[in-house]
Amino acid sequence: MIEDNGLETRLSGEQLSELKPLVVAVVGPTNEGKTSLLRTLTNDPDFGCVNAFTGTTVRAEIQKVFYRGIAEILQLIDTPGFQTSSEIMERVWESPEVEARRGEYGLAEILGAIPLDDEDFRHDLRAWREIERSDVVIFVANVAENPNKSLLKNTLTLLQHIGKPTLVAYNNLGDAERPTSTGSPVRENFQREWDETLSRNSFFLVQRYDAHRRSFQDEVALFEKLVALTRDELTQRVLRLEIQERRARELRRLGNSRTIVAEMLLDVAAFQQEETGVELADWKERQKEIERTLRETVLQREHEAQSALLETWGFKFGALDREALVVDDDSQERDDVFGDDVKKSGAVGAGVGAAIGGIVDVASAGLTFGTGLTIGAFLGGLIGGGGVMAYNSKYDKKRKRLSSRV
Predict the structure, then answer these.
(1) Sign of CA dihedral 150, 155, 160, 162
(2) Hey, which residues does 142 pair with through a beta bridge?
């Protein structure tokens, strides 16, 4: 089915039944963001286990992506991290078959060089077996690390010989340089070195895809590269439809977020307090109390907006410390306002982005739909509470009435 705007919107049931899902193995060294990237890509906050310990993923985990919840279009495999690439490289070169072919080898020789009964190689063995059954490989590169480490160099050398299309995803990009108190910039990543290393090793398909700084443009670009790597025309077609669906979902989220922000601002603008019988000598002290009450009310309303935005963009509470909510030096006073649930709240999982001022940078400015609204940054500035909040307080001497509004 084709809409008036030329976008294909539907495939027949017969066509969908013939669809063969694209199997994608997500690989890389241990603890470099493979599972986080998959959570972001699949919009599944509960997929896999993510923490700071080495070797968290110990078995291959599969996440399936369905088009409109009906047709399976992707099988994304989260693999254990490479840990013994250097040892495997040595074993490959020592193989008599590889020596006889003057150093030529492929995926079969790599698998053949891995001992089946050695516990030290079990994670790598599982990863290489998943590579064997995959159609496409995504190598997650932690750009915060120098690629000239022996493990990384040998891993890339081995991946050169697998005979499968490989896409490199840059993770943990941060900023190329950041200023310091002395004024001299400090480099935060090694993207230039990665670019050079990948070029030398004939990896030319690279996509920026930071699991911790969600960008919808990067997400679409990654899907488009998967389309380019897919040989099956029907799979290509459905992947393009999935991109359309994601664009539509992003627009719906953006519209809902605008409504959440607008309703919050209207509510805040309507907050007011009034007290009668206030003596002239007491009105300034009472003014402080009234404004403190208003401040607490606004903070609570802001938190409700935070929660609604996090839910809208597919985030999950309870995974980060309360520091994710603090942007100024007023954390102690806020402790009295928010309960334990708020202090523990954070955001993680599907679509993980950056927490800016206690609210998620939803990267809406990255959309290419003619909107310049960045909801995350907007609320990031607002959530300071009293930092940007002004009061209009009036005291009527005759009526002994004190009124205050935001």
Answers:
(1) positive
(2) 171
Q: What is the pLDDT of residue 171?
A: 86
In the predicted model, is pLDDT for residue 322 greater than 90? no
pLDDT in tens, 162-189: 999 999 999 887 655 555 555 555 567 8
**Residue whose tokens read 């003619």:** 370
What amino acid is encoded at 253 in this protein?
A: R
- The length of the chain in residues reads 406
Phi/psi for 245 (5° steps) reads -60, -40
The beta-strand segments (E) located in 125-235 are 136-142, 166-171, 177-178, 186-187, 206-208
Tens of pLDDT, residue by residue over 134-149, are: 999 999 998 988 898 8
Q: Do 61 and 77 contact (CB within 8 A), yes or no?
A: yes
Q: How far apart are CA 295 and CA 299, in angstroms?
A: 6
Single-letter code of the amino acid located at 297: T
Domains of the chain: residue spans and CATH: 21-231 (3.40.50.300), 256-405 (no CATH)
Query: Comparing C-alpha atoms, which of 74, 67, 48 is closest to residue 59?
Result: 48
Q: What is the pLDDT of residues 258-317, one digit of tens each?
A: 898 889 889 988 988 899 999 999 999 999 999 888 888 888 888 888 888 878 876 655
Question: CA dihedral defined by 156, 158, 164, 168, rounded to 10 degrees?
Answer: -10
Return contacts of 218-226, CB within 8 angstroms, 24+ apart.
218/366, 219/40, 219/41, 219/246, 220/246, 220/247, 222/41, 222/167, 222/169, 225/167, 226/22, 226/24, 226/74, 226/136, 226/167
For the segment 351-362, what is each residue's pLDDT rounded down to a tens digit?
A: 223 333 333 333
Sorted by sequence, the CB contacts under 8 Å of residue 122 that are 6+ apart come out as none
- CA separation for the pair 12, 6 (Å, rounded): 18
Residue owning tokens 């909107």: 371
The rounded distance, in Å, linking the Cα atoms of 177 and 145 is: 14
pLDDT score of 15 = 80
User: Residue 236 burial by CB count (10 A; 0-12/13-18/19+): exposed, middle or buried?
Assistant: middle
